[in-house]
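Hi there, hope your week has been kind to you so far. Please have a think about how the structure follows from the sequence. I've dropped the whole record in just underneath, so have a look:

_____
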Amino acid sequence: MSHALQDPRPSRAHTSVAPTSLTQGSLPRWAPAGIAVLSIALGCGIGVLAGLHSKVQWGLLAALLFVAVTYTASSVIENRRQAKDRVATSLVWVCFVLAVVPLLSLLWTTVSRGMKVLDGDFLGHSMNGVTSFEAGGGVYHALLGTIEQVALATAIAAPIGLLTAVYLVEYGRGALARSVTFFVDVMTGIPSIVAGLFILTTWNLMLGFGPSGFAGAMALSILMMPVVVRSTEEMLKLVPNELREAALALGVPKWRMILKVVLPTAIGGISTGVMLAVARIAGETAPIMLLVFGSQLINNNPFEGAQSSLPLYIWEQYKVGSEASYDRAWGAALVLIAFVMILNLVARGIARWKAPKTGR
């Protein structure tokens, strides 16, 4: 009877469990930010005491200290397993900062120096009658040339690249497809000056045409085509085969299935790839120097006569070496960046508009 009246629950001493490594203390949420501030302060202090004049060296010291202090603090307060995880996260953040800082520095320098001359007169006037050493003049003729040359290059390269990618994904089999893939890979690494020399030899020297924006656009299209082919090919491969099979099962011809199902599904990635190709060619200077020659006048006709472009204009102005020419070069660089950004925004808008609608 006495045994039946005993409490069946185990004593409190038997239920207590010693804390394991997984239940130890942890760093507060503000710890990474605090460690980052401490590392920056220590990095700057060590840099000053060591006589390091480069801010880059200070930043590298701060990055190393951030990783080291994070590992030490986590090992003492938490455990070695958690410390390794935090070190991996810290390395990711350090690499992210190292990649972003040069980009932000470039944008800040371009905007701060380019805004000195960027106004309506700069965008609406050319360099006609303005010597390179004096202030004034504008970028209108170069902006017009860049727009026309990039538009012509896109009109040439985008359809050819798109159809080539469709062939490789939907139809390409055997030796021909392997040959096309090989030559696309080879074209990806062609230097821009080689593309310019090819058009110069065939279009200008053999056929006898003079310098023009169209000649430059043909060279730019050679550089643009492999980028369009590769990006479009990868986007088409991401389209599920079930969509193709469902369309074919309904009796839809293959060409119509590609046009109405595959391409609309991948239009977002395709347009992004085309914009990457446009950004690739928008800053090219070597083919323009060979084939377009450059001009200080406004030339609305890309098929006849010398033209200018923004990259060539930047090079010409920076080569002069005066304060006014430097300001115009930075202003043109800012216009070029804005031009590429606007094209990307337009492409994203078109992709969102044309993409298949989901939901009800």
